[in-house]
Amino acid sequence: MYTVTVNPHRKIGCIDQKIYGHFTEHAFQNIYQGMYAPDHPLADVTGLRKDVVDALKEVRVPVLRYPGGNFVSNYHWEDGIGSQNGRKRRFDYAWETVEDNQFGTNEFMQLCRATGAEPYLCCNMGTGTIRDAMNWVEYCNSNRDTYYASLRRENGFEEPFGVKYWGLGNECYAPWQMGGMNASDYAKHAMEFGKAIRFADPNAYLVACGFESDPAWNIEVLGVLKDMVNSISIHHYSIDWGCFNLHDYHQLMSISEFVNEMIKSLRAAIEGVTGDIYHPMKIALDEWNMFGWVNERVDDNSFYTLENAMVTASVLNTLIRNCNVVEMANYSVFVNINGTIQADCRGIVLRPQYYVFKLYTHHMGNVLVDSDVISEQFETNMPIDRRVFADYFNEAAVEKGGRLRSGVEKSARRSIKYLDSVSTIDETRDELSVALINKHPEKNVECTVDIIGSREVKNAQVHSIWSAKLNDCNTAEKQSVILETSEPICRNGKFTLELPRHSISVLKLTY
Protein backbone atom coordinates (compact mmCIF):
# COMPACT_ATOMS: atom_id res chain seq x y z
CA MET A 1 0.00 0.00 0.00
CA TYR A 2 1.26 3.45 -0.94
CA THR A 3 0.02 6.37 1.15
CA VAL A 4 0.34 10.14 1.05
CA THR A 5 -0.72 12.16 4.09
CA VAL A 6 -1.15 15.85 3.32
CA ASN A 7 -1.29 18.68 5.85
CA PRO A 8 -2.60 21.68 3.87
CA HIS A 9 -2.37 23.87 6.97
CA ARG A 10 1.42 23.55 7.18
CA LYS A 11 2.77 25.78 4.43
CA ILE A 12 6.40 25.20 3.41
CA GLY A 13 6.91 28.00 0.89
CA CYS A 14 5.64 29.86 -2.15
CA ILE A 15 6.28 28.32 -5.56
CA ASP A 16 7.47 30.78 -8.17
CA GLN A 17 5.80 29.95 -11.48
CA LYS A 18 9.08 30.76 -13.23
CA ILE A 19 10.24 27.23 -12.39
CA TYR A 20 8.15 26.23 -15.42
CA GLY A 21 10.18 28.51 -17.69
CA HIS A 22 11.88 27.70 -20.97
CA PHE A 23 14.93 28.55 -23.00
CA THR A 24 15.46 29.46 -26.65
CA GLU A 25 18.76 29.77 -28.47
CA HIS A 26 20.02 30.48 -31.97
CA ALA A 27 20.90 26.84 -32.56
CA PHE A 28 19.83 24.32 -35.19
CA GLN A 29 16.07 24.75 -35.83
CA ASN A 30 15.09 26.01 -32.41
CA ILE A 31 14.27 29.51 -33.66
CA TYR A 32 14.44 29.47 -37.44
CA GLN A 33 11.78 27.14 -38.87
CA GLY A 34 10.86 26.36 -35.27
CA MET A 35 9.24 29.42 -33.73
CA TYR A 36 10.14 31.90 -36.44
CA ALA A 37 9.32 31.06 -40.06
CA PRO A 38 7.99 34.06 -42.04
CA ASP A 39 7.33 31.90 -45.12
CA HIS A 40 5.30 29.29 -43.25
CA PRO A 41 1.55 29.34 -44.07
CA LEU A 42 0.77 29.71 -40.35
CA ALA A 43 3.18 32.61 -39.76
CA ASP A 44 1.72 35.87 -38.47
CA VAL A 45 2.78 39.33 -39.61
CA THR A 46 5.81 39.20 -37.28
CA GLY A 47 7.04 35.89 -38.71
CA LEU A 48 6.06 33.82 -35.67
CA ARG A 49 4.34 30.49 -36.27
CA LYS A 50 0.83 30.65 -34.83
CA ASP A 51 0.70 26.91 -34.11
CA VAL A 52 3.89 27.11 -32.05
CA VAL A 53 2.80 30.30 -30.28
CA ASP A 54 -0.53 28.69 -29.40
CA ALA A 55 1.27 25.63 -28.01
CA LEU A 56 3.49 27.87 -25.88
CA LYS A 57 0.47 29.79 -24.61
CA GLU A 58 -1.29 26.54 -23.73
CA VAL A 59 1.46 25.61 -21.25
CA ARG A 60 1.51 29.14 -19.82
CA VAL A 61 5.23 29.74 -20.30
CA PRO A 62 6.15 32.18 -17.50
CA VAL A 63 9.66 33.19 -18.63
CA LEU A 64 11.85 32.70 -21.72
CA ARG A 65 15.65 32.86 -21.61
CA TYR A 66 17.39 34.20 -24.75
CA PRO A 67 19.61 34.31 -26.88
CA GLY A 68 21.89 31.61 -25.43
CA GLY A 69 23.52 29.45 -24.47
CA ASN A 70 26.88 29.12 -26.17
CA PHE A 71 25.62 31.33 -28.98
CA VAL A 72 25.54 34.41 -26.76
CA SER A 73 29.30 34.55 -26.14
CA ASN A 74 29.90 35.85 -29.66
CA TYR A 75 26.52 37.54 -30.19
CA HIS A 76 26.22 41.27 -30.59
CA TRP A 77 22.66 42.33 -30.07
CA GLU A 78 22.86 45.35 -32.40
CA ASP A 79 23.27 42.94 -35.33
CA GLY A 80 19.69 41.82 -34.72
CA ILE A 81 17.74 45.09 -34.74
CA GLY A 82 16.62 47.56 -37.39
CA SER A 83 15.56 46.83 -40.94
CA GLN A 84 15.82 43.12 -41.60
CA ASN A 85 17.18 43.77 -45.06
CA GLY A 86 20.15 45.56 -43.53
CA ARG A 87 21.02 43.11 -40.77
CA LYS A 88 24.52 41.68 -40.78
CA ARG A 89 25.27 38.06 -41.55
CA ARG A 90 27.75 36.63 -39.05
CA PHE A 91 29.42 33.28 -38.62
CA ASP A 92 28.26 31.57 -35.43
CA TYR A 93 31.32 29.85 -34.00
CA ALA A 94 29.32 28.08 -31.29
CA TRP A 95 27.20 26.01 -33.67
CA GLU A 96 29.30 26.48 -36.82
CA THR A 97 26.69 28.05 -39.06
CA VAL A 98 25.85 31.40 -40.62
CA GLU A 99 23.54 33.59 -38.54
CA ASP A 100 21.54 36.07 -40.61
CA ASN A 101 20.09 37.86 -37.55
CA GLN A 102 16.55 37.96 -38.95
CA PHE A 103 15.38 37.08 -35.45
CA GLY A 104 16.69 39.46 -32.79
CA THR A 105 15.67 41.49 -29.76
CA ASN A 106 12.54 42.97 -31.35
CA GLU A 107 11.27 39.62 -32.59
CA PHE A 108 12.03 37.99 -29.25
CA MET A 109 10.00 40.64 -27.45
CA GLN A 110 7.13 40.03 -29.86
CA LEU A 111 7.36 36.32 -29.05
CA CYS A 112 7.21 37.08 -25.33
CA ARG A 113 4.21 39.35 -25.80
CA ALA A 114 2.44 36.77 -27.96
CA THR A 115 2.96 33.96 -25.44
CA GLY A 116 2.68 35.97 -22.21
CA ALA A 117 6.22 35.02 -21.17
CA GLU A 118 8.53 37.34 -19.28
CA PRO A 119 11.84 37.99 -21.11
CA TYR A 120 15.16 36.93 -19.59
CA LEU A 121 18.17 38.18 -21.55
CA CYS A 122 21.67 36.75 -21.21
CA CYS A 123 24.54 39.17 -21.82
CA ASN A 124 27.61 38.42 -23.91
CA MET A 125 30.51 38.27 -21.47
CA GLY A 126 32.73 36.45 -23.95
CA THR A 127 33.41 38.92 -26.75
CA GLY A 128 30.98 41.58 -25.52
CA THR A 129 31.78 44.73 -23.57
CA ILE A 130 30.28 46.49 -20.60
CA ARG A 131 29.18 49.24 -22.98
CA ASP A 132 27.32 46.67 -25.12
CA ALA A 133 25.40 45.49 -22.06
CA MET A 134 24.51 49.02 -20.92
CA ASN A 135 23.32 49.91 -24.40
CA TRP A 136 21.16 46.81 -24.58
CA VAL A 137 19.51 47.70 -21.27
CA GLU A 138 18.93 51.25 -22.51
CA TYR A 139 17.43 49.96 -25.75
CA CYS A 140 15.08 47.63 -23.88
CA ASN A 141 14.12 49.62 -20.81
CA SER A 142 14.74 53.35 -21.13
CA ASN A 143 12.06 55.95 -21.83
CA ARG A 144 14.60 58.79 -22.00
CA ASP A 145 15.37 60.90 -25.04
CA THR A 146 18.67 59.09 -25.64
CA TYR A 147 20.22 57.30 -28.60
CA TYR A 148 19.29 53.68 -27.91
CA ALA A 149 15.85 54.43 -26.48
CA SER A 150 15.16 56.55 -29.56
CA LEU A 151 16.47 53.75 -31.77
CA ARG A 152 13.92 51.38 -30.24
CA ARG A 153 11.17 53.89 -31.00
CA GLU A 154 12.41 54.24 -34.59
CA ASN A 155 12.16 50.46 -34.87
CA GLY A 156 8.47 50.64 -34.02
CA PHE A 157 8.41 50.08 -30.26
CA GLU A 158 7.36 53.27 -28.52
CA GLU A 159 7.13 51.84 -25.01
CA PRO A 160 10.08 50.20 -23.21
CA PHE A 161 10.13 46.42 -23.14
CA GLY A 162 10.64 46.36 -19.37
CA VAL A 163 13.14 43.50 -19.24
CA LYS A 164 13.73 42.63 -15.59
CA TYR A 165 15.98 39.55 -15.75
CA TRP A 166 19.57 39.82 -16.99
CA GLY A 167 22.09 36.98 -17.05
CA LEU A 168 25.77 37.77 -16.52
CA GLY A 169 27.20 35.49 -19.19
CA ASN A 170 26.72 31.85 -20.10
CA GLU A 171 28.90 29.00 -18.79
CA CYS A 172 31.83 31.38 -18.53
CA TYR A 173 33.89 28.67 -16.81
CA ALA A 174 33.96 26.51 -19.92
CA PRO A 175 36.78 25.77 -22.39
CA TRP A 176 34.18 25.56 -25.17
CA GLN A 177 32.90 29.06 -24.35
CA MET A 178 34.32 31.99 -26.27
CA GLY A 179 35.98 34.18 -23.67
CA GLY A 180 35.93 31.46 -21.00
CA MET A 181 37.77 32.40 -17.81
CA ASN A 182 38.60 31.28 -14.31
CA ALA A 183 36.40 32.07 -11.31
CA SER A 184 38.48 35.02 -10.13
CA ASP A 185 38.43 36.74 -13.51
CA TYR A 186 34.74 35.99 -14.01
CA ALA A 187 33.80 37.47 -10.65
CA LYS A 188 35.69 40.70 -11.42
CA HIS A 189 34.15 41.03 -14.88
CA ALA A 190 30.66 40.14 -13.66
CA MET A 191 30.91 42.76 -10.92
CA GLU A 192 31.62 45.46 -13.49
CA PHE A 193 28.92 44.22 -15.87
CA GLY A 194 26.46 44.12 -12.99
CA LYS A 195 27.31 47.65 -11.86
CA ALA A 196 26.89 48.94 -15.41
CA ILE A 197 23.54 47.22 -15.90
CA ARG A 198 22.31 48.64 -12.60
CA PHE A 199 23.45 52.12 -13.66
CA ALA A 200 21.28 51.71 -16.74
CA ASP A 201 18.40 50.17 -14.77
CA PRO A 202 18.57 50.15 -10.96
CA ASN A 203 15.77 47.57 -10.83
CA ALA A 204 17.55 44.96 -12.96
CA TYR A 205 17.48 41.43 -11.54
CA LEU A 206 20.95 39.93 -12.04
CA VAL A 207 21.77 36.24 -12.45
CA ALA A 208 25.40 35.17 -11.99
CA CYS A 209 26.96 32.23 -13.78
CA GLY A 210 27.42 29.29 -11.44
CA PHE A 211 29.11 25.97 -12.15
CA GLU A 212 27.18 22.80 -11.35
CA SER A 213 30.36 20.72 -11.50
CA ASP A 214 32.68 22.77 -9.29
CA PRO A 215 31.69 24.05 -5.83
CA ALA A 216 35.01 25.92 -5.60
CA TRP A 217 34.01 28.08 -8.59
CA ASN A 218 30.71 28.97 -6.92
CA ILE A 219 32.34 29.83 -3.60
CA GLU A 220 34.90 32.14 -5.21
CA VAL A 221 32.30 33.84 -7.43
CA LEU A 222 29.81 34.26 -4.59
CA GLY A 223 32.52 35.74 -2.39
CA VAL A 224 32.73 38.68 -4.80
CA LEU A 225 29.15 38.92 -6.09
CA LYS A 226 27.07 38.04 -3.04
CA ASP A 227 25.90 41.63 -2.55
CA MET A 228 25.48 42.36 -6.26
CA VAL A 229 23.44 39.55 -7.81
CA ASN A 230 19.96 38.30 -7.02
CA SER A 231 20.50 34.74 -8.16
CA ILE A 232 23.14 32.27 -9.31
CA SER A 233 22.52 29.83 -12.15
CA ILE A 234 23.47 26.23 -12.80
CA HIS A 235 22.83 23.92 -15.75
CA HIS A 236 22.05 20.22 -15.93
CA TYR A 237 21.90 17.74 -18.80
CA SER A 238 21.66 14.15 -17.61
CA ILE A 239 22.72 12.38 -20.81
CA ASP A 240 25.09 13.33 -23.66
CA TRP A 241 26.46 16.23 -21.60
CA GLY A 242 25.94 14.34 -18.35
CA CYS A 243 26.96 11.14 -16.64
CA PHE A 244 23.72 9.10 -16.53
CA ASN A 245 23.28 5.79 -18.31
CA LEU A 246 20.42 5.91 -20.81
CA HIS A 247 20.00 2.14 -20.55
CA ASP A 248 19.67 1.93 -16.74
CA TYR A 249 16.03 2.71 -15.87
CA HIS A 250 16.48 2.90 -12.11
CA GLN A 251 19.48 5.18 -12.46
CA LEU A 252 17.42 7.50 -14.67
CA MET A 253 14.77 7.58 -11.98
CA SER A 254 17.43 9.04 -9.65
CA ILE A 255 18.07 12.09 -11.86
CA SER A 256 15.71 14.18 -9.75
CA GLU A 257 17.69 13.26 -6.62
CA PHE A 258 20.90 14.26 -8.41
CA VAL A 259 19.32 17.64 -9.18
CA ASN A 260 18.17 17.91 -5.57
CA GLU A 261 21.70 17.32 -4.27
CA MET A 262 23.09 19.79 -6.81
CA ILE A 263 20.68 22.45 -5.50
CA LYS A 264 21.53 21.64 -1.87
CA SER A 265 25.25 21.92 -2.63
CA LEU A 266 24.85 25.34 -4.24
CA ARG A 267 22.60 26.56 -1.44
CA ALA A 268 25.23 25.43 1.08
CA ALA A 269 27.80 27.53 -0.80
CA ILE A 270 25.51 30.57 -0.62
CA GLU A 271 24.98 30.12 3.11
CA GLY A 272 28.65 29.41 3.74
CA VAL A 273 29.91 32.46 1.86
CA THR A 274 27.32 34.85 3.28
CA GLY A 275 27.20 33.37 6.78
CA ASP A 276 23.42 33.72 6.58
CA ILE A 277 21.13 30.68 6.35
CA TYR A 278 18.30 33.04 5.39
CA HIS A 279 20.21 34.94 2.73
CA PRO A 280 17.75 36.01 0.01
CA MET A 281 19.91 34.92 -2.94
CA LYS A 282 18.09 32.41 -5.12
CA ILE A 283 19.08 29.67 -7.54
CA ALA A 284 18.18 29.53 -11.23
CA LEU A 285 18.40 26.21 -13.05
CA ASP A 286 18.34 28.14 -16.29
CA GLU A 287 19.21 25.25 -18.59
CA TRP A 288 18.05 21.72 -17.90
CA ASN A 289 16.97 18.62 -19.76
CA MET A 290 17.36 14.87 -19.55
CA PHE A 291 19.13 15.01 -22.92
CA GLY A 292 21.80 17.22 -24.40
CA TRP A 293 21.86 18.27 -28.04
CA VAL A 294 24.53 16.03 -29.53
CA ASN A 295 22.79 12.67 -29.72
CA GLU A 296 22.43 11.35 -33.26
CA ARG A 297 18.69 10.85 -32.62
CA VAL A 298 18.14 14.36 -31.29
CA ASP A 299 15.51 15.17 -33.95
CA ASP A 300 13.78 11.79 -33.77
CA ASN A 301 10.39 11.97 -32.01
CA SER A 302 10.63 8.29 -31.05
CA PHE A 303 13.60 9.23 -28.84
CA TYR A 304 11.33 11.27 -26.53
CA THR A 305 9.28 8.78 -24.61
CA LEU A 306 7.12 8.33 -21.55
CA GLU A 307 10.35 7.58 -19.66
CA ASN A 308 11.61 11.06 -20.62
CA ALA A 309 8.33 12.55 -19.38
CA MET A 310 8.69 10.79 -16.04
CA VAL A 311 12.17 12.23 -15.52
CA THR A 312 10.85 15.68 -16.46
CA ALA A 313 7.97 15.46 -13.97
CA SER A 314 10.24 14.17 -11.23
CA VAL A 315 12.63 17.10 -11.70
CA LEU A 316 9.67 19.49 -11.49
CA ASN A 317 8.73 17.83 -8.18
CA THR A 318 12.28 18.50 -6.99
CA LEU A 319 12.06 22.16 -7.99
CA ILE A 320 8.76 22.46 -6.13
CA ARG A 321 10.30 20.90 -3.00
CA ASN A 322 13.11 23.45 -3.19
CA CYS A 323 10.77 26.38 -3.77
CA ASN A 324 12.35 28.42 -0.99
CA VAL A 325 15.64 28.57 -2.88
CA VAL A 326 14.85 27.90 -6.57
CA GLU A 327 13.17 30.88 -8.17
CA MET A 328 13.54 30.08 -11.86
CA ALA A 329 14.18 27.14 -14.16
CA ASN A 330 14.38 27.06 -17.95
CA TYR A 331 13.78 23.84 -19.84
CA SER A 332 16.30 23.59 -22.64
CA VAL A 333 15.01 23.96 -25.28
CA PHE A 334 11.30 24.25 -25.88
CA VAL A 335 10.98 23.82 -29.66
CA ASN A 336 12.83 21.25 -31.80
CA ILE A 337 16.22 19.73 -30.90
CA ASN A 338 15.48 18.04 -27.52
CA GLY A 339 12.44 20.19 -26.81
CA THR A 340 8.84 19.53 -25.91
CA ILE A 341 7.56 20.42 -29.39
CA GLN A 342 8.77 19.33 -32.80
CA ALA A 343 7.87 21.90 -35.46
CA ASP A 344 8.49 21.39 -39.16
CA CYS A 345 6.83 22.26 -42.45
CA ARG A 346 4.09 19.67 -41.85
CA GLY A 347 2.98 20.99 -38.46
CA ILE A 348 3.85 20.30 -34.83
CA VAL A 349 4.17 17.23 -32.64
CA LEU A 350 3.63 17.58 -28.91
CA ARG A 351 6.16 15.31 -27.26
CA PRO A 352 5.46 13.60 -23.90
CA GLN A 353 7.39 16.27 -21.95
CA TYR A 354 4.99 18.89 -23.32
CA TYR A 355 2.10 17.26 -21.48
CA VAL A 356 4.12 17.27 -18.25
CA PHE A 357 4.42 21.05 -18.40
CA LYS A 358 0.74 21.36 -19.28
CA LEU A 359 -0.19 19.11 -16.36
CA TYR A 360 1.84 21.11 -13.85
CA THR A 361 1.07 24.64 -15.05
CA HIS A 362 -2.66 23.90 -15.21
CA HIS A 363 -3.12 21.78 -12.11
CA MET A 364 -0.42 22.43 -9.48
CA GLY A 365 -0.81 25.26 -6.98
CA ASN A 366 1.49 28.08 -5.90
CA VAL A 367 2.14 27.12 -2.26
CA LEU A 368 3.99 23.97 -1.19
CA VAL A 369 2.43 22.20 1.79
CA ASP A 370 3.68 19.42 4.01
CA SER A 371 3.13 15.82 3.01
CA ASP A 372 4.40 12.44 4.13
CA VAL A 373 4.91 9.65 1.61
CA ILE A 374 5.07 5.93 2.36
CA SER A 375 6.05 3.60 -0.47
CA GLU A 376 8.42 0.87 -1.52
CA GLN A 377 11.94 1.93 -2.40
CA PHE A 378 14.59 0.92 -4.87
CA GLU A 379 18.36 1.25 -4.73
CA THR A 380 20.56 2.43 -7.56
CA ASN A 381 24.06 3.65 -8.25
CA MET A 382 23.55 7.36 -8.76
CA PRO A 383 26.45 9.28 -10.32
CA ILE A 384 27.91 11.75 -7.83
CA ASP A 385 30.95 12.99 -9.75
CA ARG A 386 29.73 16.35 -10.98
CA ARG A 387 32.98 17.10 -12.83
CA VAL A 388 31.41 15.66 -15.96
CA PHE A 389 33.02 18.25 -18.22
CA ALA A 390 36.61 17.65 -17.14
CA ASP A 391 37.41 15.66 -20.29
CA TYR A 392 34.97 17.40 -22.59
CA PHE A 393 37.24 17.14 -25.61
CA ASN A 394 38.29 13.54 -24.92
CA GLU A 395 36.20 11.24 -27.11
CA ALA A 396 37.28 8.24 -25.04
CA ALA A 397 35.20 9.70 -22.21
CA VAL A 398 31.92 9.09 -24.04
CA GLU A 399 30.47 5.84 -22.74
CA LYS A 400 27.14 4.21 -21.92
CA GLY A 401 24.98 6.85 -23.56
CA GLY A 402 26.42 9.61 -21.40
CA ARG A 403 29.62 11.64 -21.06
CA LEU A 404 31.87 10.35 -18.29
CA ARG A 405 35.26 11.50 -17.11
CA SER A 406 37.88 9.34 -18.74
CA GLY A 407 38.69 6.33 -16.58
CA VAL A 408 36.43 7.54 -13.75
CA GLU A 409 32.97 6.32 -12.85
CA LYS A 410 32.13 7.75 -9.47
CA SER A 411 28.76 6.85 -7.99
CA ALA A 412 27.07 6.11 -4.70
CA ARG A 413 24.12 3.99 -3.64
CA ARG A 414 20.91 5.87 -3.15
CA SER A 415 17.57 4.61 -1.82
CA ILE A 416 14.71 6.25 -3.67
CA LYS A 417 10.97 5.89 -3.22
CA TYR A 418 8.98 4.47 -6.08
CA LEU A 419 6.30 7.03 -5.30
CA ASP A 420 7.49 10.60 -5.92
CA SER A 421 4.93 13.04 -4.55
CA VAL A 422 4.55 16.73 -3.65
CA SER A 423 1.45 18.60 -2.52
CA THR A 424 0.41 22.19 -3.19
CA ILE A 425 -2.48 24.53 -2.59
CA ASP A 426 -3.85 27.48 -4.52
CA GLU A 427 -5.42 29.77 -1.94
CA THR A 428 -7.07 32.07 -4.47
CA ARG A 429 -8.96 29.16 -6.06
CA ASP A 430 -9.30 27.09 -2.87
CA GLU A 431 -7.68 24.06 -4.52
CA LEU A 432 -5.34 21.33 -3.32
CA SER A 433 -3.20 19.30 -5.71
CA VAL A 434 -1.13 16.18 -5.10
CA ALA A 435 1.40 15.14 -7.74
CA LEU A 436 1.95 11.38 -7.81
CA ILE A 437 4.64 9.73 -9.94
CA ASN A 438 4.70 5.94 -9.79
CA LYS A 439 8.27 5.11 -10.80
CA HIS A 440 7.77 1.37 -10.57
CA PRO A 441 8.49 -0.04 -14.04
CA GLU A 442 6.18 -3.05 -13.71
CA LYS A 443 3.66 -2.69 -10.91
CA ASN A 444 0.34 -0.85 -10.74
CA VAL A 445 -0.22 0.32 -7.16
CA GLU A 446 -3.14 1.44 -5.06
CA CYS A 447 -2.44 4.77 -3.40
CA THR A 448 -4.39 6.33 -0.55
CA VAL A 449 -4.31 10.11 -0.12
CA ASP A 450 -5.35 11.34 3.32
CA ILE A 451 -5.96 15.08 3.77
CA ILE A 452 -5.59 16.24 7.39
CA GLY A 453 -8.53 18.42 8.41
CA SER A 454 -10.23 17.80 5.09
CA ARG A 455 -13.33 19.77 4.20
CA GLU A 456 -16.20 19.01 1.89
CA VAL A 457 -14.87 18.62 -1.63
CA LYS A 458 -16.89 20.15 -4.46
CA ASN A 459 -14.91 18.51 -7.23
CA ALA A 460 -12.22 15.82 -7.39
CA GLN A 461 -10.33 14.83 -10.52
CA VAL A 462 -7.23 12.88 -11.43
CA HIS A 463 -5.21 14.15 -14.39
CA SER A 464 -2.78 11.53 -15.67
CA ILE A 465 -0.04 10.88 -18.22
CA TRP A 466 0.47 7.21 -19.03
CA SER A 467 1.03 4.73 -21.81
CA ALA A 468 1.45 0.97 -21.87
CA LYS A 469 5.17 1.00 -22.62
CA LEU A 470 7.97 3.16 -21.25
CA ASN A 471 9.28 3.73 -24.76
CA ASP A 472 5.93 4.89 -26.13
CA CYS A 473 6.22 8.25 -27.85
CA ASN A 474 4.30 10.81 -29.88
CA THR A 475 4.74 11.16 -33.61
CA ALA A 476 2.96 12.92 -36.44
CA GLU A 477 1.08 9.68 -37.07
CA LYS A 478 0.15 8.75 -33.49
CA GLN A 479 -0.10 10.45 -30.09
CA SER A 480 0.48 7.65 -27.57
CA VAL A 481 1.33 9.75 -24.51
CA ILE A 482 -1.30 12.36 -23.67
CA LEU A 483 -3.24 13.82 -20.74
CA GLU A 484 -6.33 11.99 -19.52
CA THR A 485 -8.84 12.80 -16.76
CA SER A 486 -10.68 10.47 -14.37
CA GLU A 487 -12.33 10.55 -10.95
CA PRO A 488 -10.84 9.12 -7.74
CA ILE A 489 -12.69 6.95 -5.26
CA CYS A 490 -13.44 8.57 -1.90
CA ARG A 491 -13.89 6.33 1.16
CA ASN A 492 -14.22 7.68 4.70
CA GLY A 493 -12.76 11.02 3.67
CA LYS A 494 -9.71 9.42 2.02
CA PHE A 495 -9.06 9.23 -1.70
CA THR A 496 -8.00 6.00 -3.34
CA LEU A 497 -6.24 6.02 -6.69
CA GLU A 498 -5.01 3.22 -8.91
CA LEU A 499 -1.63 4.41 -10.15
CA PRO A 500 -0.52 2.52 -13.26
CA ARG A 501 3.09 1.47 -13.58
CA HIS A 502 5.41 4.24 -14.83
CA SER A 503 2.72 6.94 -14.65
CA ILE A 504 2.37 10.61 -13.74
CA SER A 505 -0.80 11.85 -12.02
CA VAL A 506 -2.17 14.89 -10.24
CA LEU A 507 -5.07 14.55 -7.82
CA LYS A 508 -6.82 17.92 -7.81
CA LEU A 509 -9.44 18.84 -5.21
CA THR A 510 -11.61 21.95 -5.33
CA TYR A 511 -13.34 23.06 -2.13
From TrEMBL:
Pfam families: Alpha-L-AF_C, ASD1_dom
Record-linked PANTHER family: ALPHA-L-ARABINOFURANOSIDASE C, ALPHA-L-ARABINOFURANOSIDASE C-RELATED
Domain of life from the UniProt record: Bacteria
Keywords: Carbohydrate metabolism, Glycosidase, Hydrolase
GO MF, one example: alpha-L-arabinofuranosidase activity
Gene3D superfamilies linked: Glycosidases, Golgi alpha-mannosidase II
Similarity field: Belongs to the glycosyl hydrolase 51 family.
Subunit composition and interactions: Homohexamer; trimer of dimers.
Protein name per UniProt: non-reducing end alpha-L-arabinofuranosidase
InterPro entries membership: Alpha-L-AF_C (IPR010720), ASD1_cat (IPR055235), GH (IPR017853), Glyco_hydro_b (IPR013780)
Catalytic activity: Hydrolysis of terminal non-reducing alpha-L-arabinofuranoside residues in alpha-L-arabinosides
UniProt domain Alpha-L-arabinofuranosidase C-terminal: residue ranges: 286-503
EC numbers for this chain: 3.2.1.55
